[in-house]
Amino acid sequence: MKTVTSRASIGRSDQPRFGLRSVGSGLLLGLAVATGAGASAQELLVNGNAEVASLAAWSATPEVKIVAAQVQTAGTVTPFEGALFFTFAGKASGSASMVQGGTTGLSAGALFVLRGRVQVEFGDLAEARVRFFQGAALLGSATTGPMNPATGLWDTFELPAVVPLGSDRWEVELRGTLVTGTFVNVFYDLLSLSACNASVAAAEVVRLGSPPNPSALLPGLTSAPVLGATWDPVISHASFAPNATLDLLCVTPGPTNVSLPGLGTLLCNTAQILILQPVPAGQPFQVPVPASCGLVGVGLYTQGASVDANGVISLTNALDITLGTF
Predict the structure, then answer these.
(1) pLDDT tens string 15-49
(2) CA 252 and chain centroid, separation
């Protein structure tokens, strides 16, 4: 049995999820739309938005209810969107959960993404899980871990999970755990489980250019650029620009090959820069790849550069990458 803990993200709905790099992530999504690249998504959850006032699609503990409002001492909770939402405070208890499962969308290597809104009060904890089974055997799982956003605010969460080979059933579980008081003050709304209709292996291909640059930009330390994960290539200074103080990574939608005397060969078409990320020399870059079906199979072009204390710039090889689901 293999269990995987996912790198889920959670952030306030009024803040950019990817911080400084959210601009680049948005450009990646726009690129997929403009080029028609990527895969379509299939929605798998039934009544994930709670707008049908029935838990028939869910297997839920008695504490879980669908309501229009929940009166709390810290204020009244109302839906993030629509007229109804899920409350786990319908009955005094130490924990509560609701589960939904299915058998569609289970292509090995396909990307599942569980998204939603969550709100808690009084320090109680929320958690979302995705699991994959073959019969009764658990093949893999992903979890957000405990979520405890600020009281009174609907926060977003996003949990990517890759379908293991042999899976014949998926399962989504939303949990709530009491920390203080009597009721589990955990609330969910706008839940969605999307499955990409394609599985593509992420790839990194070295391109030196002509004349060739030093092969100093190394592939991701953790993995190739997988959707829902963070791509972490690094520039090696073992023999390249040993006095560098700053490294830069450029990501563009197109390649080029232009010799720049004194610098090296420019290998990324800088007419449209999607991401330009600086790090201290020798540190891995951290490029979050959005968990979007629209990005499956998208090809991008990356190149590194290093700068020393005197402002001397040296260019590395390129890594031509394919965004994949595994």
Answers:
(1) 222 222 333 444 554 554 444 456 678 899 999 99
(2) 20
Does residue 255 share a domain with residue 111?
A: no
Q: Which domain holds residue 92?
A: 40-196
Q: How many C-beta neighbours within 10 Å does residue 311 have?
A: 7
20 φ, ψ (degrees, to nearest 5): -60, -30
Please state, in angstroms and rounded to a whole number, the distance separating the CA atoms of residues 317 and 295. Answer: 24
Residue 262 lies in a domain: yes
Q: 298 exposed, middle or buried (CB, 10 Å; 0-12, 13-18, 19+)?
A: buried
Tokens encoding 278: 């600086």
Total-model pTM: 0.75
Q: Which of 196, 231, 256 is the last residue of a domain?
A: 196
Taking alpha carbons only, the member of 24, 21, 7, 28 closest to residue 295 is 28
At which of 181, 196, 211 does a domain end? 196
Residue 153, number of CB atoms within 10 A of its CB? 14
- Looking from the CA of 179 toward its CB, the CA atoms found within 13 Å total 13
Single-letter residue type at 89: A
Name the β-bridge partners of 305. 248, 315
Nearest to residue 246, comparing CAs of 287, 277, 275?
Answer: 277
| Encoded tokens for 237 | 């200074």
- pLDDT, tens digit, for every residue of 71-96? 988 789 999 999 999 999 999 999 99
**Per-position DSSP letters for 122-174, written without gaps between them:** TT-EEEEEEEEEETTEEEEEEE---B-PPTT--EEEEEEEEPPTT--EEEEEE
